[in-house]
Write a structure and sequence with these properties.
Layout lengths: L2 H10 L1 H8 L8 H14 L8 H17 L5 H10 L14 H7 L3
Length: 107
């Protein structure tokens, strides 16, 4: 679902879109919320009650990886990256591992 598709989905499914807005954490900036919201909307049809919490958890895994550099198992990261395919994040930070930093310094 491209960004335009997400906006179209929101217009056609106002009740779902309004429900998704309730999932925003008070700490989430607009920059973090908009991509996570898109992640949820793109995947919400694959998760029915009572499994919506699983979708919310996966959306947080994806957002934490993208915005804070949190690391998770390879299998989990592959799953959320596949779920997020096509979501564009503006000014996403770039993170380096300790090994990458040490290698660069020649240690």
């Amino acid at each position: 679902m491209a960004n335009l598709d997400v906006e179209e989905f929101i217009q056609q499914n106002r009740a779902v879109a309004d429900e998704v807005e309730t999932y925003r954490g008070y700490w989430e900036s607009e920059k973090h919320w908009q991509p996570r919201r898109e992640f949820i909307l793109r995947n919400i049809n694959d998760f029915e009650e009572p499994h919506i919490d699983q979708l919310l958890a996966l959306s947080m895994v994806w957002a934490n990886n993208v915005f804070m550099g949190c690391r998770y198992s390879t299998e989990l990261l592959e799953k959320v990256k596949e779920m997020a395919e096509g979501i564009e994040v503006e000014d996403a930070p770039v993170f380096k591992t300790r090994d990458e930093i040490m290698k660069k310094e020649g240690r």
